Amino acid sequence: MQQQQKKLSDYDTSKQFEAKVISNERITPEEAEAEVRHIVLEVNDNAFEYHPGQNIGVLVPTDGEFGNKEHFRLYSIASSEGGEGDRKQFAIAVRRCFYIDDFSGERMKGVASNYLCDRSPGDTIRITGPYGGAFELPKDENINLLMIGMGTGIAPFRAFVKQIYAEKGGWKGKVRLFFGAKRGLELIYMNDVKNDFALYYDKDTFQAFEALSPRPALDEPVALDEAIEQHGKEVWEMVQDPLTNVYVAGQEGVMERLDKAMGKLAGSEEVWQRKKQDLKDKGRWFELIY
Fold it and tell me: How many domains does the chain have?
C-alpha cells in the first residue's frame, strides 16, 4: 500500500530479503466477486525486523517490458510480530486485480496481485523493507483509536486489533473500527471464511461497524459515510477528544466518503477541513491512501 504523497520510485529497494510462502488462503467466499487472499510469508534473516503498521515491498520478476526487470508494489502488514528466532513471519492481504487497458480496451491482469495470489506454499519471493509506517500503535493505552478503512485497506487494523487484544491483553481507550466493501461476502476478516474481527467483539473497548454498497450491481459507492453518520455523536466526540488518534486507509474514495460524513457532523465542509488539519498538525491523524 502506497503512502500518500510518496511515489513508488522514491523507495529504496536495495535491501532485499527472500521470503517463503507459508500459506496462501482465500479469505472471501468462492461466490464473492472479489478474490482476496491472506498470505503468510516467512523471512529467515535476523536483519529483517518489522512492526504492525509498516509496509513491505514485493519485487515481481518481469520480462523486461518497458525497461523494467522488476515490478514493485507495497502491501501493508496485516499481522503483529510473529515467528521464532531468525524466522520472522508476517501476513499480507492481497486482492486479485484486473484493469482495462486504455489503448486496447483489453482486460489485463494486475501484475503484482496476480503474481502473489498464484504463489503456493514453499514458493519464494523477493521483498524489500519494511517501510514506514504511517500507522504506529501509540504507547499510551489510554489513547482512543478511530480506524476507518475499505477493502484490503483494513489490513493494518487487523494487526492493531490482534496486537491490542491477543497480545497486550486489552486496551483502556476506545477502539472503533469502520470498515466496508461492496458486498457483505467481500468484507475481509469478517465473513464466513475468516472472521478475525469477530474474535474481539466481546471486548469492552472494541466495536466494529460495517458498511456496504446499497446497489453493488450498479457500482454505487460503499455507504461508509452513512455508517459514520449513524454513530456520529460518538465519532465527533472522539475526534474532539485530545486523546484520540485517527487512522484512515484504503483507495482514494475512502477519503471522499469520510470527508462527506465528517463535514455533516462538523456542520460544514470548511469546519471539518480545519479540524482535520488541526489533527494533522498535532500528530493525531494518520493515513495510507493508494
Answer: 2
E-only strand ranges, the chain: 16-26, 36-44, 55-61, 70-76, 82-84, 87-95, 98-100, 107-109, 124-131, 144-150, 175-181, 206-212, 244-250, 285-289
Which of 93, 110, 131 is the last residue in one of the domains? 131
- Tell me the pLDDT of the chain averaged across its residues: 84
104 shares its domain with 197: no
Which residue range(s) make up the domain with 253?
A: 144-289
Per DSSP, what are the bridge partners of residue 73? 58
Dist. CA 160–CA 145, nearest whole Å: 10
Asked if residue 244 belongs to a domain, the reply is yes
| pLDDT tens for each residue of 229-253 | 899 999 999 999 999 999 998 777 7
Sign of CA dihedral 273, 175, 149, 258: negative
Q: Nearest to residue 76, comparing CAs of 95, 57, 60, 97? A: 57
What cell numbers appear for 265 in the block? 457532523
Split at pLDDT 50, 70, 90, the class of 282 is: very high
